[in-house]
Design goal:
By secondary structure, the chain is an alpha/beta fold. The chain folds into 2 domains: 151 residues, Rossmann fold (3-Layer(aba) Sandwich), CATH 3.40.50; 151 residues, Rossmann fold. Helix content is 39%, strand content 14%. It is globular. The chain starts with 11 loop residues before the first helix and ends in a 5-residue tail after the last helix.
């Protein structure tokens, strides 16, 4: 694996290997007073975020440090990007400084793919190689989020294959939804997208999932439900009448959470808009695995760095 740009590059065996590596790394850290593994000592990992982030940026930074990599964070606001430097020149600069891996989040869909193409071209001319990890590109994909969600579902449900997973809300603007649909389907799950017609993307009929507009009809048959963040910052029109009406039609209230089977799991990629997308009592309930997603995010991202920089296990 040279880069991680999209979940569609992962077959079931590769995705399962990443999840298994994540489990092994988590076990290796259990009981350690100093959470450090020497696996990536001497490697340099750079996080380059053109959009705000807490969970993804920090968990990648922790993942690198727990594996003894030299981890550097670059934000667009504090770098030469704010002076007008192009993405191409920034990538060349970081590669010249010896970056073994660049983790990028960018508002433009396809930005990570462009970086990977430039990195591959540089490898041909200089012999050096920089791996690129897509930490979210526009409304396109967020592959490591899908992997950590799959890891959380494995922990809670025992397996992903054969499970029915509902994804509810702003699918149109959600890179998390797109990555989860394709990865969960690859791992053998049945995925149901539940959203108003205005929040579904063009071409969703070609995705490996079923589409529904009725959340109450779907909840009793779900093994897990993932509530999506309503991405108001990407909306330029009226996608629904009001926040209150959205909460009434698609929010996960206590009454709706009670419709899930007893083993049903509640997920949310965060940050949550409590009271609109999900009731505070549901977010803090025993069936919610939201903080488990955050914890698994560190170990999954450790696994991704391991497979990119240290090689897949035998």
């Amino acid at each position: 694996m040279k880069h991680l740009l999209t979940v569609t590059d992962l077959d079931a065996a590769t995705a399962t290997a990443l999840l298994d590596t994540s489990d092994r790394l988590r076990q290796a850290l259990l009981g350690r007073e100093v959470r450090k593994l020497p696996t990536l000592r001497g490697r340099t990992v750079i996080t380059m975020f053109y959009e705000d982030s807490t969970r993804t940026r920090v968990s990648f930074e922790i993942a690198g440090k727990w594996m003894s990599a030299d981890t550097v964070n670059v934000s667009a606001k504090g770098s030469s990007v704010s002076k007008g430097e192009s993405l191409r020149d920034t990538s060349l600069t970081l590669s010249a400084m010896g970056a073994d891996c660049v983790i990028v989040r960018h508002p433009a869909s396809g930005a990570a793919h462009r970086l990977a193409a430039w990195a591959d071209k540089d490898r041909e001319s200089t012999g050096t190689h920089t791996s690129i990890v897509n930490a979210g590109d526009g409304t396109h994909e967020h592959p490591t989020q899908a992997l950590l969600d799959a890891a959380t579902l494995r922990d809670r449900l025992g397996s992903v294959a054969g499970r029915r997973i509902g994804i509810v809300g702003d699918v149109l603007h959600s890179r998390v939804a797109r990555s989860n649909v394709f990865l969960l389907a690859t791992l053998g799950a049945e995925v149901v997208l539940i959203a108003p017609p205005t929040l579904l993307p063009v071409g969703v009929a070609e995705w490996p999932c079923r589409v529904s507009h009725e959340i109450d009809a779907e909840l009793p048959g779900l093994d897990a439900v993932m509530m999506l963040r309503v991405q108001a910052e990407r909306m330029t029109g009226g996608f629904f009448p009001s926040s209150r009406e959205y909460a009434v039609a698609y929010g996960l209230s206590d009454a709706r959470a009670a419709m899930l089977p007893e083993h049903g799991v509640v997920l949310h990629p965060g940050p949550m808009v409590r009271g609109m997308e999900i009731a505070p009592s549901v977010a803090d309930s025993a069936r919610a695995a939201i903080l488990a997603q955050v914890r698994n995010g560190v170990h999954v991202r450790m696994a991704v760095l391991y497979h990119l920089l240290a090689g897949a296990p035998e």
